[in-house]
Amino acid sequence: MKRRTLLALPAAAALAGVIAGPAAAAQRAPRVEKLLGKLTLDEKISLLHQWQPAIPRLGMKAFRTGTEALHGLAWLGKATVFPQAIGLASTWNPDLIEQVGAAVGDEVRGLQHERPPGWGLNVWSPVVQLLRDPRWGRNEEGYSEDPHLTAVMSTAYATGLSGGDPDHLKTAPLVKHYLANNNEVRRTTTSSDLRPRVLKEYEEPAYKAAVSADAACGVMTAYNLVNGRPCTVTDLNSSVRTWTGRALLNVTDAWAPNNLPAGGSQQYFGTQAEANAAILKAGVDSFTTDDRGASKTIAAVKEALEEGLLAEPDIDTAVRHILDIRFRLGEFDENGGPYGHIDKSVIDSPAHRELARQAAAEAIVLLKNDGDTLPLDLRAIRKVAVVGPLADTLYTDWYSGELPYKVTPRAGIAQRLGDGATVATSEGVDRIALKNAATGAYLTAGSGAGGAALEERATEPGARAHFDVFGWGQGVVTLRSAANGKLVGMRDPDGGGPEGYQFFNDQDQPNGWFVSQLFKLEAQDDSTVLLKYAGYEDWLGTNVYLHARTEDGRLVLGSAADASRYIREVVRDGTQEALAAARDADSVIVVVGSMPFINSRETDDREDMGLAETQAALVKAVLAANPNTVVIVENSYPTTLNWEQQHVPALLWTTHAGQETGNALADVLFGDVNPSGRLTQTWYRSEDDLPSILEYDNIKHDRTYQYFTGDVLYPFGHGLSYTAFRYGRPRAVRGGIQVAVTNTGRRAGAEVVQLYTRQRGSRVKQPRRKLQAFEKVTLKPGQTRTVTLPLSRDALAYWDVTRSRWVVEHGRYEVMAGASCGDIRSRITLDVRGETVPPRDLSRTTRAENFDDYDGVRLVDETKSRGTAVGAESAGAWLLFADADLGGGARRLTAWVAKESPGQGTVEVRLGAPDGPRAGTATAASTGSRYVYAEVTAALSGASGGQDVYLVLSDGLRLSTFSLK
């Protein structure tokens, strides 16, 4: 095959920015400087807090950073709720996602004339953390495990939010949370180890895309540490701010500044003044902390100025960034700029309802469809059973808006069937009564809309004593009162603290930061159950049970010894009710899944990746009763559906998709919409396929579709259609790859054509597949379209740690087109003219972090402000520097090391293996501080020619740089 050179085509948007940006910025800069010059130092400092006060003498209104707009306008009342972010990405349709972003941006603007508390035009979205571990509690907020797909989707959404003109912003979106934030467990104290290749090839591109396209206007820093340094003080000036020539408004995450000083969870600095100074010097402009209270931030900044940790120009820099964004938002323009006319009428408009339905339908993924079970034939259906705990409800998540209306799965299906068919339904959950085994009194709830305090009073199990038990896995349940349809939750009516906590049936769904609607019914040896509280209040502990107060019978908290023992009486068997609805139905739709405030959420990662036990049992029972069963899984993450994949004829997945969920499901079930959603993550068969959630080295630990070698349940990019597509042979053209795609079926449908590459030979471990481009194309039956997918030569580059730069290696590259990373339909091989990475020259000063392999080490902060070193965590820890050319002989090791603990440490140079021939040993004395480095040296012998060089470190040693001369 001829060698071809692939050339990138410039993006039109980038060209437009080059033409328009500098001129607009030049016009704006004098206005910014003029206003900055009028501000007093105290006024400038006041603008550094999230809640920026009004400055009436200059005509400045109050300004707030931080309107939540992840998949709709949130926390400010009723607004259009689109599918969760993971669902939006599952459409693989960036044009649609830009439209959704534009609609959300309009709705944010819609409140500008009222300006309710908590509203602002700086929106905290999109979330671009890569979903490398499906157990992450906030999986619903991200887009994909793949950096390219995440980059495309986040840029599209941010472009819609901002309006597409970076000089005249509809809203000012920022991407969050920077950087490598994919675990909730100990999220403010864990450190994500990012070796340079993982940082450059995987993590950074996801954050960089929307910023470099001038679609996003800044970043929010994450809670965690990266390489030992809190993200709150990670240097943004040498990273994020280099991605664009425009001003960025960077913010901290909520309360994160308070984690940094002594007394905080990170204790990285001695005082808040030191912490705040470091935050500003790192390139962060706005402190999100202490809610509305700015006094602590202001006092710490002033103290930093007094101590010389900051100078007024440091304050000016941050305020200049803030003012630039506010000018671009039109705040100081007559009538609010080009978007000043938008009012509240846009919120939940008919157009936005239609868009929400389209997005929800395109987000649905057809996982399995044996025997063309789907679409359902309307002509043959007279009775449908819609059963399951999510059959007739819709749930929102922490970052959702308030649903303006609800079309549940049952309602959507019933509406689509019309009057000609019957829709039977059952949630498939047990209705129970709980009788105190000692007193005979039943647990009762209030019958009014507002509920009442639960108490043990009734002597008969009437409606007030009935509760529906919804299982969410691992024994956790919610209790819904049959008396008023409200969930039982805990609150403190008297303000007396834990001893005064009582339980009321007054909640529409689980909610709140501390989700208090969670319980476990713990079986006892005497056939009774204890009612255990399973909410998220950490300070209550894990062994808290409910018992009746002596004076009034009301339920309160106590120990297991005090707990009421209940006889669990089944009033209605949920499974039998579901089976009664299902047995004679023409088709059964079982809707199972998650509750976003329970199964995984902010501060809580998943431990179990399967369906809840009660839900899995319901699916098995219904399928046994009626083989014409379709299962819909409605949740926010990959699920280990091994049994379901093997036995259920048809499986659909949707995220929690907002107000139009039911209509969208009906559109797909009955074939009005041909499913075109595709998975944006690998669906594994078991938790055992994954390393620790705290392990961030995808390359070494074979994470994500790029490196995973095991058998998966569903591959990245998977999704079926009601039609079939044939791929032609790819062809290299200027700027990319062309492939012909034909619809060979009898229905119109959309195919997501995915382009992957693989480097056949390399100096380093390369991805097995790497997504380079994709396009969603709609084809009529028999129609063929030639799709051109961009592929540049630079896209084949990887980060060369031997020279700290990007490199395209000379060699052969497979280019693959397919329907998923596991369903490659056609491929070609290209010979690419690149370079051969030369042997390492270790005579030059080499940073220790630029290793090729390692064991027993962590990446750590070289200093508090910048730099990464390597820290040994055990004796015999080692670093590999492969393929080094030591020439005629390296005679001397020179290394810079730090050792905080007392005593001596060593750096050994070994050849060929960690226990190979020892060329020399350097001895290091304690430096007394992890940040104080000293030079150590050692004579070397036998170190010549081409070698794999290993540095073996003693426990507690930190190594920043070294050389072998």
UniProtKB/TrEMBL annotation:
It comes from Streptomyces monticola. InterPro entries: BXL (IPR044993), CBM6 (IPR005084), Cellulose-bd_IV (IPR006584), Fn3-like (IPR026891), Galactose-bd-like_sf (IPR008979), GH (IPR017853), Glyco_hydro_3_C (IPR002772), Glyco_hydro_3_C_sf (IPR036881). Keywords: Hydrolase, Signal. Residues 1-25 form the signal peptide. This is Glycoside hydrolase family 3 C-terminal domain-containing protein. Residues 844-965 form the CBM6 domain. GO terms for molecular function: hydrolase activity. Belongs to the glycosyl hydrolase 3 family. The keyword Cytoplasm does not apply.
